[in-house]
């Protein structure tokens, strides 16, 4: 076809000399081309017909048409489950191997129908719930199609309901799975708690219905001994306790599962659960009770009276926060035990119960994913999800702060600090800063970040001679964020960020700043303080550098902080703030203040009295106008960052730190830091 | 003709190009071996007839589960509900009786006995006890104890052994709980037995050595790994572990100089500890050193695993995946390394550093089981200051404590109660009451009348409610958790104290930023007195301080609960006998909880002159030089706590514009600057 095209390209030159017979040739060519066109058009639509050829495979994808496997009566039966199994004895971790994402790979066996010798099916092929569960697994990140790469295997044999299957034959079916190997790395799902499928989810809405009953029991098939105990409870506490049972005289057509009765009073189930504060979960035939799931969904606090009941996902979920466990022996005291719980705690538990339901039990998918996550956490414990992530409801997670430097300790003074001077080309001023800073006793190293790519830093011999090591780092690009890069050269925890024009700080002031940082190692400790204010007229934040009684930020032109915040600034700054700062060449200090306040939940510490600083705001040569545009820019930064963080993390305080004897009537020469506020 | 021909030619050309374009792509698509195409059904099929599938259980079936009788008591697999009788603990909560030792008492045993006796749960009567503690014999020479008198099949007994028992038990454990060092996971009964740490022989009784960590983040260049070896040694592997330091597989590169003797602690970021028995001791060593324990498939239960969330402080890894574990450790994010390191130190300091802490933690766990729903929440166990110092009886809600506001996203209540302690005094302290009541943050004034004389009637009219409480004329009374205290903050005052309203206002605003600390006006500092070989303290003005006087200080009301219910009785008695001691005691208590210094705020010197010169013997002095007897007090306190908890501070928090060269009209707290 290509050749003919080429011919055609050359064609026009020949055409004038061609005669009628060529016309036929052209017509033939044209029709061929047209035919081809039609054919191509057809071909384009072919994928659809490929689908229709997979009509054939969809036919096969009906449950009725899954391949049938005949299990001979004498096929091997697997050993009983080994109760002493532990993760490190019975689980083959080698199959999971190294995985950069720390995610296990799960394989699902394809669906088959098992029949015995006589051709009678071993069990119903698959239930709706199990199908849903496997679909959820297959849709998750854990799923793999490659059986060789999988470390966890899920048989498609439905074991959810033990009543509905023939135990021995099902075991035989399991044993013949291609990777069964005595069940190593196989995950079986059995008897999930889950409400009857005809649940009406719309009924779930009313939340603040008054809870008329303090304690409610809704289970139907209870052992007479329990029933007696419950009846005794009801007799003792009257209205507050409601014990429900099966309805005996229901008219035809009403599903018995949806009704409960007390004497002759009929209640709708599960709606009635919403009217109780506590709901009893007693021991049934299988410890795991469907009623637990109903109770959680109704926001009722489950009272577990079943001693050896392992609550679902108890490995990671803290059930103490959402339920009350009462030993079976203490069943008669249950009312007293519950009565002693303060109202606030009850509300907390209700909220928690509802959160557990919503996060982990409300759908088969949620259950399947939680299960896989737990196994994943066991295999990759170093990447495991924390207690708080599992258990804290979103409202708590949103408001809470977990300070990365939570351990209360005062680092030793001997460690000292590293001064980082960001400079461009003001060599003279830089050298003065270096000389001044080097007088501070606790200085252990000085790092100059040379941000000028067009100019080389001065020769070694020209630098001031100081008592501590001085390193010059050259940057690849003139960016403000270079000041906050976690350089390997920083060996101390404390970092002093200082501009190359801050020469008005005395050695005493700097040393005292370091001492203050030691007492507050998780905060920004700085000299010039600034404030953010809410502008009611404009409905936005405003930057304030006047003499105020409050402070919420410190300028990083001279500030001490933990070097960990450099790591956070460089690698964990939310949103596009870092690029925004580099593009605008402004507000890196405000960004740092936001970052630290957001991660620690704490305010800055301003040290020493106010003095006229040589700082961006003050170097305004053109006077007022430049000063004002600068303030507008800074205010914009605050608004921009507050929107990226989604909140205003800055904390306003009214204090600053001074030496203990500052301005006290006390001989100056006996003071540790006499030279403060003097310049 | 020509034009027609040309047209048709062009058309043909166009059509063939289209053909090429249209035809080539599907062909290409076919030519490329069909890798899984997007959108194609993959993995688990979407069944055509999914809608028709049956549910796994019929609606009725789940509910119609057959009944099951209550559980019978089984000795072998006891659990808390079946084998422990909590009815005995009703009312007074946990009461512990410990069987007296029969023969010679070993050192460890003496420490355990002392710890139990120092506990607030201890009782001397076996009859009123709800937990009977039986100490396992711990000396190889000692005879094995016979069955104790109140044994009763082991019911409500706790058999405690800090070291593996040298002689086999002469009797069946029955229903007794076992608190054992590093029990194997196979015999451990979760929720019933208690897993203890394996302590070295010379573990201190009280206080204990603090954690070794002096800084939050690992030092640069510190070794990544240390591997525990037999005989209590550590093999520091450094960052280069191409040959794995595993199971002796890389015996050849063990340099002798890299091996530390058992006494020293490992200096590395992670400590690999094999899961086999003899290495259990390493676990505590690593914890103390702030070296994150990496436990390789431990066969033993981690200590206090019932309450401690070990995933926050240690890594339990699979020993079969050396390369994977090593890579994971190398690539672990800095944030997590920091968190793990800090948690090791917190846990060590809160639960493991002394025998007393281990025993008290054990009792606290049992108490939590008895409490049921009002036990410590997990947060209280797993964040500073730890469950021994956070009493669940104070409040069920963590946000009522001063420690968890950050985690809970809460704030302390915005007002304070002034608690004025009035000893022998004829007149109501009018000036003080007016100054305090003038503060906008003041919610109420409580006068604790501690004099023999009946309180006077002429109390001034104030804007806030004023209540007089009759005290018991003991100094420690002033720290009793009175139910009348309705706010989080307490301003503790003496009748002699002199304060201005703006001082009170500013101090309270500062306290709101530091609700777990004491914020005070007058300070003392402690020092080590070489000449006398003991601690001393002084009220002289110095460049640092470590205590604030409770005659004028803000602190959280939780410290009243802690002072009254958690301090050993002996220390409180001591404070009652030497009144200035009560300040020291309160400062010790708060410092041992926070591990931080108190906070000083400015205090006008003009108060000094206004102060009445004679000091009543009944009340703690304002600024008097501690008497020699009082100097002794600090040493007795230090002995009682087992260590010196006080921390010094070199700073004072002033208002932002304090004494700045700016118009006084701009200043919010201008009256603080009176000369």
UniProtKB/TrEMBL annotation, chain A:
GO terms for biological process: heparan sulfate proteoglycan biosynthetic process. It is found in: Endoplasmic reticulum membrane; Golgi apparatus, cis-Golgi network membrane. Pathway: Protein modification; protein glycosylation. Its cofactor is Mn(2+). The chain crosses the membrane at residues 24-46. It comes from the Eukaryota. It is an enzyme of class 2 (transferase). Its EC number is 2.4.1.224. GO terms for molecular function: glucuronosyl-N-acetylglucosaminyl-proteoglycan 4-alpha-N-acetylglucosaminyltransferase activity; glucuronosyltransferase activity; metal ion binding. This is Exostosin-2.
UniProtKB/TrEMBL annotation, chain B:
One of its GO terms (biological process) is heparan sulfate proteoglycan biosynthetic process. SUPFAM superfamilies: Nucleotide-diphospho-sugar transferases. The keyword Transmembrane applies. Pathway: Protein modification; protein glycosylation. GO terms for cellular component: endoplasmic reticulum membrane. Keywords: Disulfide bond, Endoplasmic reticulum, Glycoprotein, Glycosyltransferase, Membrane, Signal-anchor, Transferase, Transmembrane, Transmembrane helix. GO terms for molecular function: glucuronosyl-N-acetylglucosaminyl-proteoglycan 4-alpha-N-acetylglucosaminyltransferase activity. InterPro entries: Exostosin, Exostosin_GT47, GT64_dom, Nucleotide-diphossugar_trans. It is found in: Endoplasmic reticulum membrane. Residues 416-658 form the Glycosyl transferase domain. This is Exostosin-like 1. It comes from Neophocaena asiaeorientalis asiaeorientalis. The gene is EXTL1.
């Amino acid at each position: 076809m290509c050749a003919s095209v080429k011919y055609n390209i050359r064609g026009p030159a020949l055409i004038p000399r061609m005669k009628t017979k060529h016309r036929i040739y052209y017509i033939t060519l044209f029709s061929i081309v047209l035919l081809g066109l039609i054919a191509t058009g057809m071909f384009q639509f072919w994928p659809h017909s490929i689908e229709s050829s997979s009509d054939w495979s969809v036919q096969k994808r009906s449950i009725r048409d899954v391949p049938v496997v005949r299990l001979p009566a004498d096929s091997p039966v697997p050993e009983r489950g080994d109760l002493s199994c532990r993760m490190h004895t019975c689980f083959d971790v080698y199959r999971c191997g190294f995985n950069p994402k720390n995610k296990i790979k799960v394989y699902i066996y394809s669906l088959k129908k098992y029949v015995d010798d006589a051709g009678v099916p071993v069990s119903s092929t698959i239930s709706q719930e199990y199908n849903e569960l496997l679909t959820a697994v297959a849709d998750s990140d854990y799923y793999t199609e490659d059986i060789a790469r999988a470390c966890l295997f899920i048989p498609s044999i439905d074991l959810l309901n033990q009543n509905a299957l023939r135990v021995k034959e099902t075991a035989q079916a399991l044993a013949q799975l291609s990777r069964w190997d005595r069940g190593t790395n196989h995950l079986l799902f059995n008897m999930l708690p889950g409400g009857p499928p005809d649940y009406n989810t719309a009924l779930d809405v009313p939340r603040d219905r008054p809870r008329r009953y303090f304690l409610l029991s809704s289970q139907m098939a209870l052992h007479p001994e329990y029933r007696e105990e419950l009846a005794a409870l009801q007799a003792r506490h009257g209205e507050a306790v409601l014990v429900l049972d099966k309805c005996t005289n229901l008219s035809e057509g009403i599903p018995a599962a949806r009704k409960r009765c007390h004497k002759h009073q009929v209640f709708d189930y599960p709606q009635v659960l919403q009217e109780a504060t506590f709901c009893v979960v007693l021991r049934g035939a299988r410890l795991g009770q469907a009623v637990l799931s109903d109770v959680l969904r109704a926001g009722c606090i489950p009272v577990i009276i079943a001693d050896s009941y392992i609550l679902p996902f108890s490995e990671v979920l803290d059930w103490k926060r959402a339920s009350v466990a009462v030993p079976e022996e203490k069943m008669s005291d249950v009312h007293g035990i519950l009565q002693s719980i303060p109202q606030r705690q009850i509300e907390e538990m209700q909220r928690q119960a509802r959160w557990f339901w919503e996060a982990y039990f409300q759908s088969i998918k949620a259950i399947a994913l939680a299960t896989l996550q737990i196994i994943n956490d066991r295999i990759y414990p170093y990447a495991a999800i924390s207690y708080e992530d599992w258990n804290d409801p979103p409202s708590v997670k949103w408001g809470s702060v977990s300070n990365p430097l939570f351990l209360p300790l005062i680092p030793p003074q001997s460690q000292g600090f590293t001064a980082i001077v960001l400079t461009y080309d003001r060599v003279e001023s830089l050298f003065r800063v270096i000389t001044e800073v080097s007088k501070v006793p606790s200085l252990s190293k000085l790092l100059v970040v040379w941000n000028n790519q067009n100019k080389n830093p001065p020769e070694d011999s020209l630098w001031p001679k100081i008592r501590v090591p001085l390193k010059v780092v050259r940057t690849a690009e003139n960016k403000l964020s270079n000041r906050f890069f976690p350089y390997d050269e920083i060996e101390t925890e404390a970092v002093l960020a200082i501009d190359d024009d801050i020469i008005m700080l005395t050695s005493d002031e700097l040393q005292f700043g370091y001492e203050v940082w030691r007492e507050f190692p998780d905060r920004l400790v700085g000299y010039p303080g600034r404030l953010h204010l809410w502008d009611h007229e404009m409905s936005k934040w405003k930057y304030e550098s006047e003499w105020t009684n409050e402070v919420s930020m410190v300028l990083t032109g001279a500030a001490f902080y933990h070097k960990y915040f450099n790591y956070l600034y460089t690698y964990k700054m939310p949103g596009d703030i870092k690029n925004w700062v580099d593009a605008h060449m402004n507000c890196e200090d405000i960004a740092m203040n936001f970052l630290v306040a957001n991660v620690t939940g704490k305010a800055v510490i301003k040290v020493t009295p106010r003095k006229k600083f040589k700082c961006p705001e003050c170097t305004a040569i053109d006077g007022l106008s430049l000063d004002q545009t600068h303030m507008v820019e800074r205010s914009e930064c605050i608004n921009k960052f507050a929107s990226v963080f989604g909140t205003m993390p800055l904390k306003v305080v009214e204090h600053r730190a001074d030496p203990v004897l500052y301005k006290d009537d006390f001989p100056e020469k006996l003071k540790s830091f006499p030279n403060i506020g003097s310049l | 003709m020509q034009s027609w021909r040309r047209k048709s030619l062009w058309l043909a050309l166009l059509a063939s190009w289209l053909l090429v374009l249209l035809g080539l792509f599907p062909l290409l698509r076919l030519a490329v071996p069909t890798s899984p195409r997007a959108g194609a059904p993959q993995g688990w099929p979407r069944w055509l007839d999914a809608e028709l599938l049956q549910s796994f259980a019929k609606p009725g079936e789940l509910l119609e589960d057959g009944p099951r009788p209550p559980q019978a008591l089984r000795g072998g697999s006891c659990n808390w509900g079946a084998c422990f009788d909590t009815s005995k603990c009703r009312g007074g909560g946990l009461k512990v009786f410990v069987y007296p030792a029969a023969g010679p008492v070993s050192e460890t045993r003496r420490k355990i006995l002392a710890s139990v006796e120092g506990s607030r749960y201890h009782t001397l009567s076996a009859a009123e006890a709800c937990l009977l503690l039986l100490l396992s014999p711990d000396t190889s020479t000692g005879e094995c104890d016979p069955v104790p008198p109140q044994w009763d099949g082991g019911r409500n007994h706790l058999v405690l052994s800090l070291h593996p028992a040298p002689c086999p038990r002469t009797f069946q454990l029955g229903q007794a709980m076992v608190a054992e060092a590093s029990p194997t996971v196979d015999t451990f009964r979760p929720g019933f037995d208690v897993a203890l740490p394996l302590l070295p022989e010379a573990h201190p009784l009280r206080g204990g050595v603090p954690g070794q960590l002096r800084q939050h983040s690992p030092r640069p260049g510190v070794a990544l790994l240390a591997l525990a070896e037999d005989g209590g040694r550590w093999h520091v592997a450094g960052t280069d572990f191409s040959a794995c330091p595993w199971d002796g597989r890389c015996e050849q590169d063990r340099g002798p100089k890299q091996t530390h003797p058992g006494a020293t602690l490992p200096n590395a970021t992670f400590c690999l500890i094999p899961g086999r028995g003899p290495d259990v001791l390493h676990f505590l060593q690593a914890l103390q050193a702030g070296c994150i324990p990496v436990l390789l498939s431990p066969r033993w239960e981690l200590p206090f695993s019932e309450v401690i969330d070990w995933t926050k402080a240690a890594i339990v890894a699979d020993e079969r995946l050396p390369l994977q574990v090593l890579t994971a450790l190398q690539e672990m994010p800095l944030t997590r390394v920091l968190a793990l390191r800090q948690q090791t130190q917190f846990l060590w300091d809160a639960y493991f550093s002394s025998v007393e802490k281990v025993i008290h933690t054990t009792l606290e766990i049992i108490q939590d089981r008895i409490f049921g729903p009002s036990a410590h929440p997990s947060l209280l166990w797993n964040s500073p200051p730890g469950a021994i110092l956070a009493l669940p009886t104070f409040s069920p809600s963590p946000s009522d404590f001063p420690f968890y506001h950050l985690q809970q996203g809460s704030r302390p209540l915005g007002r304070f109660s002034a608690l004025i302690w009035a000893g022998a005094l004829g007149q109501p302290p009018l000036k003080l009451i007016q100054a305090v009541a003038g503060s906008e943050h003041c919610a109420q004034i409580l006068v604790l009348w501690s004099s023999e004389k009946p309180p006077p009637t002429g109390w001034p009219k104030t804007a806030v409610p004023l209540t007089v409480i009759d005290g018991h004329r003991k100094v420690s009374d002033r720290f009793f958790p009175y139910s009348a205290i309705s706010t989080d903050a307490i301003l503790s005052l003496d009748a002699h104290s002199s304060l201005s309203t703006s001082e009170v206002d500013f101090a309270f605003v500062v306290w709101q930023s530091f609700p777990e600390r004491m914020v005070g006006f007058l300070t003392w500092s402690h020092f080590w007195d070489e000449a006398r070989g003991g601690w001393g303290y002084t009220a002289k003005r110095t460049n640092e301080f470590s205590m604030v006087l409770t005659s004028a200080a803000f602190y959280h009301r939780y410290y009243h609960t802690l002072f009254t219910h958690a301090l050993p009785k002996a220390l409180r008695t001591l404070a009652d006998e030497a009144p200035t001691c009560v300040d020291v005691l309160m400062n010790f208590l708060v410092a041992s909880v926070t591990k931080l210094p108190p906070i000083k705020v400015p205090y006008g010197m003009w108060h000094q002159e206004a102060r009445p010169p004679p000091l009543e013997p009944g009340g703690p002095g304002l600024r008097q030089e501690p008497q020699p007897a009082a100097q002794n007090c600090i040493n007795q306190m230090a002995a009682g706590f087992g260590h010196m908890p006080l921390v010094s501070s070199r700073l004072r928090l002033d208002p932002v514009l304090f004494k700045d060269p700016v118009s006084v009209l701009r200043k919010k707290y201008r009256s603080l600057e009176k000369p």
